[in-house]
Design a protein that fits this description.
Helix 4 runs parallel beside helix 5 and helix 6 runs parallel beside helix 7. The radius of gyration is 26 Å and the shape is globular. It is built from 14 helices and 37 strands. By secondary structure, the chain is α+β, with helices and mostly antiparallel strands. The protein has 3 domains: about 280 residues, Beta-galactosidase, Chain A, domain 5 (Distorted Sandwich), CATH 2.70.98; about 270 residues, TIM Barrel; about 100 residues, Sandwich (Immunoglobulin-like), CATH 2.60.40. The strands form 6 sheets. It has a 17-stranded antiparallel β-sheet that branches. Strands 28-27-26-25-24-23-29 form a 7-stranded parallel β-sheet. Helices cover about 15% and strands about 35% of the residues. The N terminus is likely disordered.
C-alpha cells in the first residue's frame, strides 16, 4: 500500500485514528518458509530472526546489530500427546505492517501509537500425525512480542499443555530487578542481582545490559491461559524459561483449538524512561470492547481502610467497627469539603468475623450499624461516590455463585466502583491465584462489572497485561507490596518506590495507596512507620500511575495541612508522561501533563541527593507558575520526616530546577500557565542553593 490516508473507525463514541501505512498487509503468503525468516522494527533498529533448526523452532533478537536474545527455542509439551517442539517443516508465512493512533479512555497519555511489523510462521510436522503450529511475531520500535496459535485441526480438538518451552537466552549477565516467583502473590520487595543469580521470578523482570540497554520481559493479553513466571534455564546461567502456573493436577493450560497464547514481550529501551513511556503491552491487546465509556470516571478516593490496618478500627462488628453509617458520613463530609470524589468502605458487610472460612461472606447483608442505601444517598447529595468492597477471603466458589447478585445490588443503589479482594488460599483448594482457573474468574468479574457499568480495583489480582485497553473499567490493581505493609511489618524501604515504576508499573496501574501524613502513627502501632518524608508521599501521586488513586490517611491527619491541597488537585489520568531522569533503585523524576498544566514528582532512596532537571518540555515563549513542595533543609525520613518547604515562582522552558531530595525524600510540584498578574507579581525562580 502506498501513499497516506486517514481512516476513522468508531468504537462506540471513541474515534480511532489510523494513519500512514495502514494495515498494509505485505501479505506474501508463501507455500514454504525458509528456515531463517527476518523481521525488523519499523525504524529498522530491532531485528528478530526466526529459525528452524533440524525441525525445532526458535528465535533471536538484536538491536543496532548487538545481540539481545541469543537463539532460544519455542514450542509445547502436551499431556497425552507427542510434543509440539520439533520435527516441523515450513508450511508458509505471512507478513503485514500496521500503524494506528488510538485514544485510551484513561492512562499515562491521551494518545498511543501502535506501529509494528508482523510475521506469522506456519509450521507442520513433516511426519505423522502432521499437526500444525503457528507462531506470530511483532517487532515494534520499542521491543518485540510473539505468541503461539494452535489451529483447529483433525485429531487435535483440544489440548492440555504440560509445559510451554519458550526460552529467553540473554546475551550477557545483566543486572536484574525482580520479585521472586510466587503463584499466589506479587507482594514482595524487589531484588537487584545479576541474571546468573536470579533463579526464578514473577514478571515483569527488568534488566540493564553492560552496553546500556534496558530490557523488560513480561506478557500481554492474558485472557484464558496460565500466568507466566520465569525460571532458571538448566545448563545456561544467562537463560530463563517460561514456567506456567499449574492446575492442581499439574497441567498448565487446558483449552479447545484454536488456542491462542498470551504475547511474550521483550521491551527494549535506552533509558528506564523508555520502558515507562512505551505502549507495547497495551498495544498487544484488543481495542475497547465497550460500546460506551462515559461512565468510566477516573478519580481520587479516601477510605475506611488505613484505620483498619493500623488498628484504630476493625473490619468486623464491635465497639471499634469502622464501617458504621455515622463514621462513613463523617468521611463523606471531609471528602466533599476537600474535593475528593470517592470513598471506599471496607467491612460494611457481614462475614468478617469468619475470616478464612468457606461461605463467610454473602456480599449483600450489612452489619446492623451500617445502612448501605442511606450512606450512598448521603454521599450522592455531597457529590461523593461510594466505592464498594467484595472481599472473598479466597473463597472464589462462593463469590462466583453470588457475583451477579452482589454486583446487581451496587448497580441498583448507585455504587459505580468496587474493590475486590482475594486474600488467603483459593477455594477450591489446589487452585492458585495466578493459574488459568483464576485468570478465567478475574476476566468474568471484569465482564460482569462492565455489564452493570461498574469500575474495578482488584486486590490480590492476576498481574496486569494490558487488558484495561479492552475493558477500561478494569481501572487499577494491587499486585504490589503497597502502603499497608508499613502498618504491620518491617515496612517498605525507601528504595522500594524508586524501583516500582520500572518493574511492576510497566505491567499497568498499581493501587499503592499513598498519601500518609502521620508517618509514625505511634498512638496505634508503636514501632511501625512509613519510610518516607511527607513530601515523598506527595511525589508518589505523580510517579505512581493509577486512575483510581487513594488519599490513604485518616481525615483528621489531613485537617489544616496545606500539602493536602496538592493531593486534592493532582490529576489521576494524563495527556502526556515523561521520565526526566532515573536510576532504578536510586531515584526517579517524572513529569506528567493534564491539559495545560504539568505535574512533577521526584523520589529518592535512603540517600539524600540534589538533582537538576530542565523544563524543556514546557511551551516556548510562555511563563508558568511553579507551585512546589520540597523536603526541608533538615528533613530526613527517619529523624525529621515532616519537614518541608513550599513556594511559588515563575519558570519557563529555559529554567533548570534544582530538586533537593532528603534521605527517603521527594519533590512535588504543579507547573501551570501564569496569568498576567502572576507573571508580574511572582518572583522568577532561583535555585535554593
Amino acid at each position: 500500500m502506498s501513499g497516506s490516508r486517514v481512516i476513522r473507525r468508531m468504537f462506540g463514541s471513541r474515534v480511532i485514528m489510523l494513519s500512514g501505512v495502514l494495515l498494509a498487509v505485505l501479505a506474501h503468503a508463501s507455500d514454504a518458509a525458509p528456515s531463517g525468516e527476518t523481521l525488523s522494527s519499523p525504524d529498522g533498529r530491532i531485528r528478530l530472526v526466526f529459525s528452524l533448526d533440524e525441525g525445532a523452532p526458535g528465535y533471536s533478537v538484536s538491536r543496532d546489530g548487538r545481540e539481545v536474545i541469543r537463539p532460544s527455542r519455542l514450542g509445547y509439551r502436551l499431556r497425552g500427546a507427542p510434543p509440539l517442539e520439533g520435527g516441523f517443516a515450513p508450511a508458509g508465512t505471512s507478513r503485514r505492517s500496521f500503524d494506528e493512533v488510538w485514544r485510551p479512555v484513561w492512562g499515562k497519555a491521551s494518545e498511543a501509537r501502535n506501529h509494528y511489523n508482523e510475521l506469522e510462521v506456519r509450521l507442520r510436522e513433516s511426519g505423522p500425525p502432521g499437526r500444525e503450529l503457528s507462531i506470530v511475531f511483532r517487532a515494534f520500535d520499542d521491543g518485540v512480542a510473539f505468541r503461539y496459535r494452535v489451529p483447529r485441526q483433525t485429531g487435535l480438538p483440544a489440548v492440555e499443555i504440560a509445559d510451554e518451552l519458550t526460552e529467553f537466552r540473554f546475551a550477557g549477565d545483566h543486572t536484574t530487578w525482580s520479585i521472586r516467583a510466587d503463584y499466589e502473590s506479587y507482594e514482595h520487595l524487589y531484588r537487584e542481582m545479576p541474571l546468573s543469580e536470579l533463579g526464578a521470578a514473577n514478571t515483569p523482570v527488568t534488566m540493564l545490559t553492560d552496553d546500556g540497554l534496558f530490557l523488560s520481559v513480561h506478557e500481554a493479553a492474558l485472557t484464558d491461559y496460565a500466568g507466566m513466571t520465569l525460571a532458571w534455564l538448566e545448563g545456561d546461567p544467562l537463560g530463563l524459561r517460561c514456567e506456567l502456573v499449574p492446575w492442581p493436577d499439574g497441567v498448565k493450560v487446558r483449552g479447545e483449538t484454536p488456542l491462542v497464547s498470551p504475547w511474550r514481550t521483550i521491551q527494549i529501551g535506552e533509558s528506564p524512561g523508555d520502558l515507562v513511556e512505551s505502549f507495547l503491552i497495551l498495544n498487544l491487546n484488543e481495542p475497547c470492547a465497550l460500546e460506551e465509556t462515559s461512565w468510566i470516571r477516573p478519580m481520587k478516593y479516601m477510605g475506611i481502610w488505613w484505620s483498619l490496618h493500623i488498628g484504630k478500627e476493625t473490619w468486623h462488628e464491635g465497639p471499634d467497627h469502622g464501617a458504621t453509617t455515622e463514621n462513613a458520613e463523617r468521611y463523606i463530609d471531609f471528602a466533599s469539603d476537600h474535593g475528593i470524589p470517592g470513598l471506599l468502605i471496607e467491612g460494611w458487610n457481614t462475614g468478617w468475623d469468619k475470616w478464612g472460612a468457606s461461605e463467610a461472606y454473602d456480599y449483600v447483608t450489612p452489619y446492623p450499624d451500617f445502612d448501605l442505601e442511606e450512606v450512598v444517598g448521603y454521599a450522592a447529595e455531597k457529590g461523593v461516590s461510594i466505592i464498594g468492597h467484595h472481599e472473598t477471603g479466597g473463597d472464589v466458589v462462593t463469590y462466583e455463585r453470588k457475583l451477579e447478585e452482589a454486583l446487581d445490588l451496587y448497580a441498583r443503589v448507585g455504587v459505580p466502583a468496587v474493590k475486590t479482594g482475594y486474600a488467603g488460599g483459593i477455594y477450591p483448594r489446589g487452585q492458585h491465584h495466578h493459574g488459568q482457573w483464576m485468570v478465567r474468574h478475574y476476566r468474568r468479574v471484569v465482564e460482569e462489572a462492565a455489564r452493570r457499568r461498574i469500575m474495578l480495583d482488584v486486590h490480590e489480582p492476576i498481574k496486569p497485561t494490558g487488558v484495561s485497553r479492552t475493558y477500561p473499567n478494569m481501572m487499577t490493581r494491587e499486585g504490589v507490596r503497597g502502603m499497608e505493609y508499613n502498618a504491620w511489618s518491617e515496612g517498605n524501604p525507601p528504595e522500594h518506590t524508586t524501583i516500582l515504576p520500572f518493574t511492576r508499573m510497566l505491567a499497568g496501574p498499581l493501587d499503592y495507596t499513598p498519601g500518609i501524613f502521620d508517618l509514625t502513627f505511634d498512638e496505634y502501632k508503636p514501632g511501625n512507620r512509613v519510610h518516607t518524608t511527607l513530601v515523598k508521599q506527595l511525589a508518589l501521586y505523580v510517579v505512581l500511575e493509577s486512575p483510581l488513586q487513594m488519599a490513604a490517611d485518616l481525615p483528621e491527619n489531613y485537617k489544616g495541612q496545606p500539602p493536602f491541597g496538592f493531593i486534592a488537585k493532582v490529576p489521576v489520568t494524563w495527556d502526556e508522561t515523561r521520565v526526566l531522569d532515573a536510576a532504578i533503585g536510586d531515584y526517579a523524576v517524572f513529569a506528567r501533563r493534564a491539559g495545560e498544566a504539568w505535574y512533577l514528582g521526584a523520589v529518592t532512596d535512603e540517600g539524600a541527593r540534589v538533582i537538576r532537571t530542565p523544563l524543556a518540555f514546557l511551551d516556548s515563549g510562555r511563563s508558568y507558575v511553579l507551585s512546589y513542595y520540597a523536603d526541608g533543609a533538615d528533613a530526613d525520613w527517619e529523624k525529621r520526616p515532616l519537614s518541608f518547604e513550599a513556594g511559588r515562582a515563575i519558570v519557563d522552558q529555559g529554567t533548570w530546577l534544582t530538586l533537593p531530595l532528603a534521605a527517603g525524600g521527594g519533590y512535588a510540584a504543579e507547573i501551570a500557565p501564569a496569568t498576567e498578574e502572576e507573571a508580574a507579581s511572582l518572583p522568577a525562580y532561583a535555585p535554593p542553593f
